[in-house]
Amino acid sequence: MFLKLKKEQKELMISEIQYFFSQERDEEITEFAAERVLDFVKEKLAPHFYNAAVLDVKHVVEQQFSSLEDEILTLERPIKK
Asked: Which of 12, 33, 47, 50 is placed for a possible disulfide with 29 were both Cys, Cβ 3.0 to 4.6 Å?
């Protein structure tokens, strides 16, 4: 999955990864090591989150379409015979 991050975003994420390792694992990692962790997350884990978000959006759009369809049907006028 191709994910292009802005330089500032990438730097912030790398810093967050380093902080996580420091706080949670009591381990200092280099910027390079943190960047490798970020690459792993982008390549292997991010697609799962992306696909879950796509399904959430699909559900929201389906609900909105259903609501819109109901609203349109209320505009129908009875036909007298």
From this structure: 33
Determine the Cα–Cα distance for residues 70 and 63; give it in Å rounded to an integer: 11
CA pair distance 45, 48, nearest whole angstrom: 6
Task: Assess if residue 81 is contained within a domain.
Answer: no
Q: Is residue 78 part of a domain?
A: no
Question: For the chain, how long is the longest CA-to-CA vector?
Answer: 82
List the domain range (segments joined by +) for residue 32: 7-73
pTM above 0.85, yes or no: no
Per-residue pLDDT tens for 11-40? 999 999 999 999 999 999 999 999 999 999
pLDDT at 3 over 90: no
